[in-house]
UniProtKB/TrEMBL annotation:
It comes from the Bacteria. Residues 114-242 form the GGDEF domain. It catalyses: 2 GTP = 3',3'-c-di-GMP + 2 diphosphate. PROSITE patterns: GGDEF (PS50887). InterPro entries: Diguanylate_Cyclase (IPR050469), GGDEF_dom (IPR000160), Nucleotide_cyclase (IPR029787), Rev_trsase/Diguanyl_cyclase (IPR043128). It comes from Pseudoalteromonas citrea. This is diguanylate cyclase. NCBIfam families: GGDEF. Keywords: Membrane, Transmembrane, Transmembrane helix. One of its GO terms (molecular function) is diguanylate cyclase activity. Its EC number is 2.7.7.65. The chain crosses the membrane at residues 17-34, 54-71. Pfam families: GGDEF (PF00990).
């Protein structure tokens, strides 16, 4: 799970737990100071026609029933908020992180991302594909690309950055191996998104950053690399050299 999530819910739980603890402490002090149960016992013996002793097992069973009921509702609430949290940070169609989720993740990147590559993947003429074949075909292209990324590069930070633009941050990669890596990535994606009557062209931009690199600045540089690749006709890879 991503850090920084559903803090208000956790705070409410703490407040409720403290309130319940306080109520139980007050009840304990009352019962211990005034012998409440002993008084109830004598009262029930003196008024047996009220059948008060029959209520004891009923109260015990009700306590267990309400405890189980509350536990089940609490588990359902946890599942609900977990699902809401997932949908808040993920793209529902591709299963990748959305832009908000990726930005939050990038703010808490672990040390293994110190030497990493940032890659932008963009599908050329995507609007024309949607117009020619329908949005279902365009969605299927994105799903196929996301599926391949999740299968082969699950160690990377993967995101649907905007529209048909995908972003990935690849950890533990060397500057000198970056060209061969992006070529392999390019071939992997283009192989799985071909259409029978139309060639799907892909443009990619990439940049490498060391431990001192600012990932926000790397995003600016990789966007420039992607723009350069698309301006030159698309269907190619541009690595920003800095």
């Amino acid at each position: 799970m991503l850090p920084g999530h559903i803090k208000p819910l956790k705070m409410n739980y703490r407040q409720e737990l403290f309130a319940l603890f306080g109520v139980n402490v007050v009840c304990f002090l009352v019962f211990s100071s005034y012998d409440t149960l002993e008084w109830l016992y004598h009262f029930s013996r003196d008024h047996e026609h009220y059948e008060l002793d029959e209520f004891v097992p009923l109260l015990f069973s009700l306590t267990i029933t309400f405890a189980l009921f509350s536990f089940r509702r609490w588990k359902e609430a946890q599942l609900f908020y977990t699902e809401v949290e997932y949908l808040s940070f993920h793209d529902s169609m591709t299963g990748l992180l959305n832009r908000r989720g990726a930005q939050l993740k990038m703010a808490h990147l672990p040390a293994e991302y110190a030497g990493s590559a940032v890659v932008f993947i963009d599908f050329d003429n995507f609007k024309q594909i949607n117009q020619l074949y329908g949005y279902e075909v365009g969605d299927e292209i994105l799903k196929r690309a996301a599926s391949e990324l999740l299968k082969d590069y699950d160690h990377s930070l993967l995101s649907r950055w905007a529209g048909e633009e995908l972003m990935m941050i690849v950890p533990n990669i060397n500057r000198h191996t970056l060209p061969s890596f992006v070529d392999e990535l390019y071939s992997s994606i283009t192989t799985h998104i071909t259409l029978s009557a139309h060639t799907v062209s892909v443009s990619m931009g990439a940049v490498w950053g060391d431990a001192q690199a600012d990932h926000q600045q790397l995003l600016v540089l990789v966007d420039e690399a992607l723009s350069f690749a698309k301006q030159r006709g698309g269907g190619q890879v541009k690595i920003f050299d800095h």
